[in-house]
């Protein structure tokens, strides 16, 4: 369904992880999806560019959210 909305399969996988986990560090997203670290960061950037994700910084850590 998300792929029909214009997301790639991996973008959809990361987006669903964000929805499921809520505000989450990249490490949690990586562990949840099983995707490589660099791939997850790239996908998060693409989701941010599409307006489907964002991030907040708490202390020294960045948390991503749908």
Descriptive account of the structure:
- The chain is 52% helix and 18% strand.
- The protein is α+β, with helices and mostly antiparallel strands and 66 residues long.
- It has a 3-stranded antiparallel β-sheet.
- β2 and β3 form a beta hairpin.
- α1 crosses α2 and α1 crosses α3.
- The model has no long low-confidence stretch (mean pLDDT 94).
Query: How many E-type strands?
Result: 3
Rg (CA only): 11 Å
Q: What is the H-and-E element order?
A: HEHHEE
Distance between the termini: 17 Å
- Could you tell me the mean pLDDT? 94
Low-confidence stretches: none
- Approximately how much beta-strand content do the residues carry? 15-25%
- Biggest beta sheet attributes: 3 strands, antiparallel
Strand order of the largest sheet: 1-3-2
Shape: globular
Structural class: alpha+beta
Q: Bin the helical content.
A: 40-55%
Number of helices: 3
Nutshell version of this structure?
The chain is of the alpha+beta class and 66 residues long. Helices cover 52% and strands 18% of the residues. It has helices at 9-21, 26-33, 37-49, and strands at 24-25, 54-58, 61-65.
Q: Characteristics of this structure?
A:
about 70 residues, alpha+beta, three-stranded antiparallel β-sheet, 3 helices, about 20% strand
List the helices and strands and how they pair.
Layout: H1 9-21, E1 24-25, H2 26-33, H3 37-49, E2 54-58, E3 61-65
């Amino acid at each position: 369904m998300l792929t029909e909305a214009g997301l790639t399969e991996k973008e959809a996988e990361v987006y669903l992880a964000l929805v499921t986990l809520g505000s989450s560090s990249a490490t949690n997203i990586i562990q949840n999806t099983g995707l490589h670290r660099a791939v997850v960061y790239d996908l998060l950037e693409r989701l941010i560019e599409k307006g489907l994700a964002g991030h907040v910084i708490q202390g020294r850590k960045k948390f991503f959210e749908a």
